[in-house]
Amino acid sequence: MFILVLPIESILPALLGTLQQHQLAVLQAPPGAGKTTRVPLAALQCPWLGGRILLIQPRRLAVYNAARRLAQQLGEATGSRVGLHTRYEREVSADTRIEVITDGIFLTRLQQDPELKGVGLVLFDEFHERSVNLDLGLAFALEARAALREPDNPLRLLVMSATLDGERLSQWLQAPLLVSEGRQYPVTTHYRPAPLDRNPIDHITQVVREALASQPGSLLVFVPGMGEIRAVQRRLEAAELAPGVDLFPLHASLPRPQQQAALEPSPPGRRKVVLATNVAETSITIEDVQVVIDSGQVRVARYDERRGLDRLHTEMVSAAAADQRRGRAGRTGAGVCYRLWGESRQAGLKPFADPQILTTDLQPVALELARWGARDATELTLLDPPPAPRLARARAQLTALGALRADGAISPLGRQLASLGLSPRLALLVWSARGTAAAADTIACAALLTEGVPQGTSGTDLRRHLEALNGTPAPGPWRRVRRLQQQLQRRLDRERPPGGDQVPAITLPQALARAFPDRIARQRSEQPRRYQLSNGKGLELAPGDALQQSLYLVVLDAGGGGSDLRLHLACPITEAELTAALDEHIQSRETVAWDASREAVKAEQQHCLGALVLRRSPLLEPAPEAVQATLMQALRARDLEPLPWNRETRQFCQRCNWWRQQNRPDWPDFSTPALAAELEHWLAPFLAGSNSFADLSQVNLLDALQHRLGWDQLEELDRCAPTAWPLATGRRTLDYSNDGPTLSVRLQEVLGLDQHPCLADGTPITLELLSPARRPLQITRDLPGFWRGSYQEVAKEMRGRYPKHVWPEDPARAQATTLSKRALQR
User: Fold this and answer.
1) Global pTM?
2) Domain 187-357 adopts which CATH fold?
């Protein structure tokens, strides 16, 4: 019987009774209520418990801490009645009744044993974190409970959350909701936003120093990542803190002893400052913490669908997470919380963090669903189903990798990949090289990409990191990578069939290419630092990056918010390796495109990997229709200018357009836009054999234009809009480029005309009368009126300027001429 010292204990009888009767329940209990350490031990005493208890945690650190505290309450070490199981450690015995495991281990166990034989109760702790594994694990457990368990051997489920909307969760599960009181001690909250001119790291450091000077107890400082932890730690160490203050980092990548050191109570007379990421939000208690300093930020991996990569974002925490962090100050006594943002911003925080299933790469989700046998996410009880379009794309990617069959079912290869406990891509990387000379490198690479490149190491070349990993005698910063490396090797050894299997020889770059076929990058010839990815996106290398010497790269990590991704990690690959590795992905296609530099159609046979052209050769017999279409598109882009226009063809179009405007709407439009829009109809028949602008000089453009009209229309055009006008001195060309027909002619050539010239329909021709030097003298549409009027003044002036030419007193009766006076006298 437990002493009632934590709020949760007041509702334990009701909670256990609900589990006995309904077998499914939701528990909402704020930080400090005791749900993690009290509920499992209380359930252990219940006569209805028909097996082992599984306590699911979303983080390894939470597993270690929860298992240790549960075992301590029983007066035992972990591995006896309380066991634990993470990716790297398993402390379980025949006596184990409570097993604390990560959500990933739970998901794997469900896939291997859907009935969960020997398990009577599953506790989903910290469900508000909404990891993908928690969501899928609960959905699978609900289905297994209903389909595989008999009524006399039920599987009981309890979903526990500190901050999630319990009412929504209860309604979704159709399960009773129990609510417990929260923390025991009050927490005073101060809002301390950074001044605009202060560096955020300097501001955190300043508030830590102020809190140390004004508040008792130890401090827990939340920052978004390891980089910020190191930066604040350096500042505080340089500030020479008061004696008796110890600094501890706390994040997921630390060795377990260092994590444990941060959680232990400070010795008498000392206190500590724990600089932590969000791993300290849940299921851990730091005994003597009385002050929380919250930067209000968290680093979140979000899948960029457009670029096909996960990208880390630094975001403001949710209101629920901020409350969770604040609660750490009131676990063992009254506390203080400094929030490094303003009260107005607090009101704008989103209520809860986004479920991971809505933000992450869905390839692992799609593979788990297929492994479970679910063809569609809607078949399962998921609080937030993954977005259907993104899930469909993830399934298509898995199908391309060979992990799924065409009908969506998991393939034998997919089952092998799922058994390795890696993301599908990294599992394929390892599996494709098993038993070959590249096996060790692919395992090391998969371990490195899973755990991440250790802090303090730099460079974009994967090969250099593998050299550092293999050349370091002591684990050092590579401890976690090496541990996973060894685990993967053991797992592959178990999977290898008797006598081994025949795996074709493969290199590390080839194995990487098979795992990441959509992340092959090819150097742009004109810009050595810029590459194009096979998924169509751009990539940029930093100045001086030695990988610029490589034509092809397999891109493993990239980021940045610009138009091009910035390379973080890649492995060079030769064209021969690439072609051999991805032969089934490389497609041959015939392309016909416009070569602007040659002003000609370029027809090629291309061998392509996605958006990349690996090889190209001339296409000797391209489809004529494609050549014509490309040439005509180039013509349109140049407003038909490259066609062999001359005065005759331009005049023809002008005549047609003018006559069309004279109440002839049924006539074709010969304007440039109209001609460009209908090239296929009037020009294409004349383009046989043409594939460049130069070839167009052989096109009979006038003939092509005239074919837009019928014979009757051509006769009408010649009759009503003639090309030239007869004068006594000869035929002169008419210009239709302005509002109507215009005849530009020297004044002496219209002498003797006593009527104004008009077309067949009566339209007067505009006369532009010129001097002997062909300079304009008069524009008129009434020649007789000009003779009677202003002609005498014009003639008087011109006689002095052009005395060698005739300027008769009576122009209407004079003889038209093109000759000078002297020539007329001969």
Assistant:
1) 0.78
2) Rossmann fold (3.40.50)
